[in-house]
Amino acid sequence: MGRRGPRRLRDTAWATAGVAGAFAGIRAMEAVRPEVIGEDSGAAEIRDGVGELTRAYFFSAGAIVVSPLLATSVRLPRSCGPIGLLVQFGAVGLRVWAMRTLRGHYARTLRVVDGQPVVRSGPYRSVRHPGYLSVLLLWAGAALTARNALAPALTLTAVGTAYQHRMDAEDALLLRDLPGYAEYVETTRRMVPRLLAPRSGSGRHER
Which branch of life, at top level (predicted)? Predict the structure, then answer.
């Protein structure tokens, strides 16, 4: 019992660092966002999903910090702490790559503007939503830093569900309003690359 106290304190310290890294990563992603082409207001029905994402972030932050203190948590290897931070660093890099690829079409909200292309270069060659994938990885990395199995399970469920709803709304909007997006959907998956997917076509959308 005496050894559990210091261990839990160390794990909590790592978890706190991971949560701080997640929020710092989100701020860094927003700081380097390129200027958006056109108005960045988005459709009203899609803006409502922002609240769900925010709730998922804060729920995950709480779950990550508290989980090392729970007696029922299953401890992961110590290496998961630094590995989690490395995953977060890579997640920010993926988001920057996605933003640089879309440039002025990388909007905070979901909307389609006149002349908007469907982009198939950069990370969009492999997945339709690398921006969302980057945030999911950011929070997965934060969960790993807690060095227990409960944190990733809760975090991926909360953040993954919120982004599932977001992607459903985005794909519906783009299939309706963006010419060529339907063909793009046929050759790419949302977040997991198709190893043998065809590479023909041109463009993409918001995230």
Answer: Bacteria
